[in-house]
Structure formats: C-alpha cells, structure tokens
Amino acid sequence: MDLYDDPNKGNTEAYARLYDENATALFRLAGAIVWNRQEAEEIVQEAFLRLHETVREGHIRSVEGYLRSTVKNLAIDCLRRRKTRFGFVRENQRISKTSSETPFEWSEKQEIEKRFLAMLGELPDLQRAALVLRVLEEESYEEISRALGVSIENVKTHLSRARAKLKPLLEEYTRR
Description:
By secondary structure, this protein is an all-alpha fold. The protein has two domains: 12-81, Orthogonal Bundle (Rna Polymerase Sigma Factor, Chain: A), CATH 1.10.1740.10; 103-175, Arc Repressor Mutant, subunit A, CATH 1.10.10.10. Helices cover 72% and strands 0% of the residues. The protein has seven helices and no strands. The longest helix is centred in the C-terminal third of the chain and has 24 residues, at 152-175. It starts with 11 loop residues before the first helix and ends with a helix.
C-alpha cells in the first residue's frame, strides 16, 4: 500500500491505515500542547489534510515524522493565536475544596493553582509540551523525543528547565 498510488487523490486505504495507526498518538500530542479536546481533534484533522496536499506535490521522507511535526507546529500556532495563554486547563482538573479545608486554605490553594498555571503558560512551548507529556501523559523520553521531533537529550534539557522554573512554586505548594 502506497500513499502515492494516485497523485491526484492518494490511496484511500493507505490513508485509512495511516490514520488508524497514528491518530491517537497525534491527538495526545496536540492535546498535551493545547489542552483542549476540540482544538486537538481539529489539529489532527488539519495535519492529515496537509499530508494529503503535500503528498500530491511530491514525496515526503517520513510520513509519520511529517505528521508529528505538523501537529506540533499547528498546536503551537494555536497557542499563539489564543487571546489568553492560560485557557488550556482541562475540565475537572481545577483544585476543589475539601470538606476539611477552611475557606482561607482553599483560597490559598486557588491562588497557588492560578500562579502555577500562569507559570506553566509562561514556559516556552517545547518545555511545557515536554513536561505535560512526561507528567500527565506518562510518556517515556523516547516517546516525547519522537512526538516533539527533538533528541532525547533535548527532551531531558527541556524537562529540567521546566522543572527548575516551576520548582519554587511547587515547593511552596507542598509546604502547605
């Protein structure tokens, strides 16, 4: 099966197989960067549309690499277009008040959460994406490396820098 069988429309069966094999991982990558399900789905769809257009224009060295790179770039572009950099909190992920907390304690947690999200939003895109993929998605360094199109050493560097920037706030949170 070859994507290049028909230069005008591509091989539908090959595209379907490629989608089945890659869509979930691409969705996770987009979701980790934009933190919005609908936008992540649209990004993955757009990446496959762009693949189809690019295949019509000529051969691509690595289809999977092209898709990962396109998803990453589209997701980062999506972040740049947002009016606010902090609107990517997943639903139901906000800190909720427990019955044993006083209103003051709950308010402090809310403030720390806001500061954490602000700091997370200020991280460079690759640092944030690497951190989210590692911590929330529990991906290995190798998986993150492939998803972001950087070396494993670069992944470790991005994670180290992200953690260093967030460390003071995390230490404050754990002291409470």
